[in-house]
Amino acid sequence: MPGLALAMLGILAASALLPTQGYILNILMQAATQAVAVTGLVVVLGYCGQISLAQAAFFGLGAYGVALGTTDAGLPFSVALAIGIAAAVLFGVLLGLASLRLGGHYLAMVTISFQQILTLVLTNWIGLTHGPDGVRGIARPAVPGLRLDAGDRYLTLCLLALAAVAWAVWRLKTSRLGRAMQSVRDNEIAASTCGIDVFRTKVLAFAISAALGGLGGGLYAGARSYISPDEFGFGESIVMLTMGLLGGIASPFGALLGTGLLVILPEWLRFLRNIYLAVYGAAVILIMVFLPEGLWGFTNRLRRTVPPVIGDVPPLPLLAQRGTATADVALGIQGLAKHFGGLKALDGVDMAVRQGTVHALIGPNGSGKTTFINVVTGLYRPTAGRITLAGQDVTGTAPHQRTRAGLARTFQNIRVFRGMTVLENVMVGAERPGNDIAETPALVVERALAALDFVGLRADANRPVGTLSYGMQRYVEIARALAGNPAVLLLDEPAAGLNLTEKGELGALLRRLKGHGLTILIVDHDMNLVEQVADHITVLNFGRRIADGTPREALSHPDVIAAYLGEPRDAAA
Length: 573
Known about the structure:
The chain is of the alpha/beta class.
């Protein structure tokens, strides 16, 4: 990325050309160390979408680790810094564990509480933290021949650390873990059904964010030589969040830009004397109101292009086989029940989806079809019954574990990852754990492009998925599922919202999949589509199975006619 190279060169040039005045050095060291911590917010909030208002607490843990380690314990700077980072990571993981049951503003309240508790501990545990008086005489790294205790040399160290962190976080965004984080941010349910362990991903995001906060705080303590509890209060967490939002929370370079502005801009405006704070505050408000993506996001949007994807890729493995239906049960359902209080959404449903067939599940509105799909894919826990996938019992497993076993699905209400491109959406599906190419990035890209080629969207691979039409986004969901090379594909109302032309194209696509032997369970209201592609039909009504057989047998069953036409059973017969 050209921007990365320019940022690196700018940082190194600045470190070489800086004047030696103590005041300027202190301002720049403050900006560099805080930018490291703000980059941690890019990971937890910008990438993973988890609100954290405790970054100053992790910053403080790193700072006190270095301060107490070098002064009270007499440890080398590097050892003390490692202890501070480890302490920050520990508490970051604990906060991440809270995200199992909490989200949104509730999670924000937990992080605020942690921030306040840490501030009280730093202030009142005088025997350990020195209390309100703070810690003085903090040592800087001692490396023979480098004179890192000198201000300009230590600033160079801080800037190099910042450059390394910015590069690592930028690379993280385009990695497998980074895509998993962005998937969780955009849609947790879709992420879990793509094989992503949502809870583990959130915990990792908090841990990485805390580690960067601790690193920034440790470097800050060495820069200041004196720290006190009031430097790590809740107000500082708000300032760090503002820095990230101002520059652009979705990019580490936005974090650098926002931090630099909020630290350096007030110094530039001091010539305005008494009104400089008002001008500074107004500038921040205007930027955040009119540029919600931040300054870096705005510049990225201005220069965003959609380069074409060229070159041949191997076809989907699915296309190398011919469709042969067998008597083997790919997906088995025995006595499946799901009760919501006194409502029996599913009541003892049995079904056997044969290998290599297209099995349709139909029924009137409210018959339990979507509940059935959600129970089968693990989004709901069944009240009773058993679910097997290729003979393996998956009844008690989580959604991501069922996906890893070979179960893929699409949704009635489209669930694409809107903050990502079309290609990145499909790459998430290709990276399904258990997929044969999931650990090889180049093969993941090939598989994703092959899936897009199959559904006719390869030319749109680099477009933001939110710019596609509704029907095209449906195809992105299907391509994402196919890229994972699933054993069974569940399609929940794939024709919903499509026009007649798009429905015809969807029918042709499903017939192609059927011709290559993929096992498909389709739920849809469009009887024309169902009759075109289905080998077998199961009909639900009021949570019970009322018919099961070939399309002709199922659709001509008296109970099915009565359910759809609302006629008495004997009259319908």
